[in-house]
Predict the structure.
Amino acid sequence: MTTSATTVRVAEAAAPIDGRDQFAPLLERVRAGRKFGANVLSTLDVLQVLYDRVLRITPATVDDPDRDRFLLSKGHAVAGYYALLAAKGFIPPDWLDDQGGPSSRLGDHPDRTLIPGVEIGSGSLGHGLGLGVGSALGLRAQGRLAPRVYVLLGDAELDEGSNHEAIAYAGAVGLGNLTAIVVDNFSATHGWPGGLATRFTANGWTAATVDGRDRDALHPALTGHHGHRPHVVVALVGDGE
Amino acid sequence: MIVRDTFVATTTEFLDDPRTVVVLADISAEAFAPAATRHPDRVVNVGIREQLMVGVAGGLALTGLRPIVHSYAPFLVERAYEQIKLDLDHQGVGAVLVSVGASYDRAAAGRTHLGPADVALIDTLHDWTVHVPGHRDEVPGLLRAVVCGQGSAYVRLSTQSNARAYPEAGDLRVLRDAGPGAALLVAVGPTVDAALDATADLPVTVAYTHRPRPFDTAGLRALVDSAVILVEPYLAGTSARLVSAALADRPHRLAALGVRREELRRYGSAADHARWHGLDAAGLRRSITDFLSPALV
């Protein structure tokens, strides 16, 4: 667990001095000459819209019970995530230089107990949505109606049956404080005939399917929930992108 | 199922604490229906979805609640093992898992409903408390202790029962002292009556525990001479590593008795299975006398 004292210290160390968007150079720093796969590139725009315009969370509020929750379920998509956490001041940029090293807090999959602002440890696919459903239920049971739970998944990750347990249940009970975001780069081996969104809408979710590279389209989709049913945003990106 | 009624009644009382939340996957949902009516946001039944049941528990715990997660033993522990490992332990949060259907409680249901491996699986994880009550009257006290705690716990309820309760038997509690030099038999949960019967006229000290994790290794060292007999109502040998580690500096012998691994493909009753696994009084006596007379074997 991170203490709030640690959190504040880390936030100060990483805060952008002049307020510029440091994302691009920070991403290069994570990349360190490696080639990024489709799983990284496909999530960059969604992550930036979320952290720039949607999520109500700052380095100062990572332990606030009324913060929004962002759960990265596709835990392999860490490069953009770590760069954003550094750009937004959650972690010091220095941490980006040694990802996966013996003293690093940043693995190839994130660990919530090591990184301020990270809500779940993930890596094995199909765990984030169940944790997100539980978080949404927990907030509701405590009368915390302001925060919203966002879970980012991939289209191939939806192959895991555990997601479909969560989709069916969240729809059945009208879990209105939950948003799933599925980045669809058409990487699921057997595809999703009829479109991914139908798996959700058939279970009572509201859905928006948008161009996952179009930030002006992503923003209304990511905020397009009406509060009585769970909401899914399917972010389409190029084949294998 | 009397022990389950005790669990439901006790847990319903815990729901008066706004931090408590019960997570179900249809099993026992009817018994919790009155509690669900009173606390609709804190009695969560996800349907027949055990992966989600444990994932939801992890999410609830992340928001500061204390989940009590309940189902049939093989579905709770075996089917959802990765969720237990990742959605609870890896997230750094705790929950109390409570199972029914221990080992061969529902023998006639066949292999799908037999769950002898549950404690061994939980034992692959770090720092869990495991309770195996031998009588329904032991349940409220031990359940209160783990629900009021912070860490994770597994409570294994069984329809098998000793004739009387031995509360406060987390640490080893001596029920029969055979004096210096006697072998030490440690019986876990509902096995102790058969163990007492089996050894009535043997030089064996019988100690009882309903809390195999953390195992009372200090008590073991204080009581043991050189021969130890473990009698566990789940997979044979589950606690053998702890006994060996606790006695690493002493010459000792160990007989680890419990449910065997082979699939019997037989139905019948729990008593039949106890007999087939050598865990009834006669079977235990055979194993124990063999163990105590190695020269004659």
